[in-house]
Write a structure and sequence with these properties.
The complex is a heterodimer of chains A (about 280) and B (about 300). By secondary structure, chain A is mostly helical. Chain A has a single domain, classed as ABC transporter involved in vitamin B12 uptake, BtuC (Orthogonal Bundle), CATH 1.10.3470. In chain A, a hairpin with a 2-residue loop joins strand 1 and strand 2. In chain A, about 50% of the residues are buried. Helix content of chain B is about 80%, strand content about 0%. Chain B contains 15 helices and 2 strands. Chain B has a two-stranded antiparallel ribbon with strand order 1-2. In chain B, helix 2 runs antiparallel to helix 10 and helix 3 runs antiparallel to helix 4. The longest helix of chain B has 27 residues. The chains are: A mainly alpha (about 280), B mainly alpha (about 300). The interface between A and B is large, with 46 and 48 residues.
Amino acid sequence: MIQVLISGLFLGSVYALLAVGLSLAFGIMGVLNLAHGSLAVLAAILYKKTLVLYPFSPWTFCLLATPIFLGFGFLLHLIIVAPFRNLSLSAGLVASLIASLGLALILEDLLVCWQGWEPISTNIIFPTYNLMGLKIPGLRAILLGMAAVTIGLSTFFLKKTDPGRSMRALAQDKEAASLYGINPGFTSMGALGLATILAGLAGIFYSSLYPLGPREGIDLTLKALFIVVAGGMGNLRGPAVAGLVLGFIESFAGVLFTYTSTDTVVYSLLVVYLVLKRSGSRQ
Amino acid sequence: MKPWQMSLSIIILTALMMSSAVFSKGYVGIFVFSLIINGTMAVSYDIPGRSLGLISLGHAVFFGLGAYCFGIAYSNGFSFFPALILSVMLSVVGALMVTFLMAGLNHGYYSLATLGILIIFQRLFETLESLTGGSAGLYIPETLSKLHCNLLAAFLLLATAACHALFFRSRWGLYSKETEASEEAAEAIGIPTRTVKILCLMTAAIPACMAGMLHLARTSHVSPVSGFSLTLSITALLASRVVPVKGLLGPLLGALLITAAEEVIWTKFEGFNHAWFGLILLVAALYQGIDFRRKKTISAAVENPLSR
């Protein structure tokens, strides 16, 4: 039972990292990026391909990959945000959703072409610690710590730094933020860059723990969206907590049901939650 | 709809009816059948898509539901027409449950939930192995001749087109447009918005269910991936929106275009079919072909009345 809880905690921390990036993109730009999970898969493949040449640890690779994913974020901004900036919030949301789905489909085929159908697993050997009779895998514990630090740093960046404050101002009122001299295009580009970095880190962490198929990008995105919807769109603390909850749900469902049933449970919860939440907000 | 658009729509429908009778076998027969099924999916998709402005990423849920209901009924000893009637009834109940859940959602939330529903059904039908054949799918023996399947599919397209035309001329069509413009305002003037949404979504769901049944009757096989297919949902979305013409003509021309493109993609770019669909989606979204009708509404709404 406690072992399942620990496993859920590790999985939840990776989901939280993935969802925080998605929530950031939605909160600041009103964009539901369906290519978010595919970017995580891309990061995992990049890590695996790099491991063949240089045996980097996940944390060293994370540091090296950060500027690359910042660049991907800027590129993504040009495709799924910039063209729809003149549309209303709901029309922009749908347009970005469709554009990012298109991008996710393109990425998936390219990733299959590059990597093949086999799931990616970086499989780094790390010692397992015994703490009061509980087996705690060292790599998972380190990744859990790294996920917590990343979320903490992102929160610090958004709350205490000038670019972070600009992003929050933009999320609250675009026009008022522009009047105060904030460049909406540049700031939202930075926000999507940060969100993409978080997706990349989540992909590297996930593939260090579990096998990740090249076509699992959209599945990952949907789980992250469930977390974002459950935790509240646009903030960071809610998705982080909801990510942990999903990790626990998935770990428990994994013990009780088969793999496909676990997904059915998770997605059913997504739809029921979405329907209940929308009904509640309408009332 | 303008007279030339109506005339062209009738010409396309007549040509499809005749082709379904003439070409029932071989590659051309399969192509004509695919064209008719895609046409049915696109025209049915266009009903809630245009009237309520909803973008569904899971229209194939109804297709898969219909195919599986028919397959399960047929493999349990029912002959063709009783199995068809039973599966229509079962699919209607299933579709009603799905549409009842979805009716409260708008715009991005609706798109997201429909995608979630599609994956739920895919996984659920993989899990219920004893009933659905698991991930390998369900095989049934040939139930009808290819010619009959093509003819029934053509009649289904005709009936769907008639529903499309009648819906937009009926008061429910007007109610749905009012609901799309402003749900609160529509409720204030006494429009039962939830009923309108359910009716609209059901009008789209039933033809899709029947298309699934006929597809299974012709191909003898359905699997969770092919029945509840994201590609099929995207095909319907693209076919209904890619040609910027209002009325019935838009989805019909869209279905012709997308089915032809699909054939080229499948044969010439094997392994990249998702990527090509993605590219078409991306280009369509970038040029606002996906939501071109909404664009007009928005540009009219954001126009400052004081500047006139």
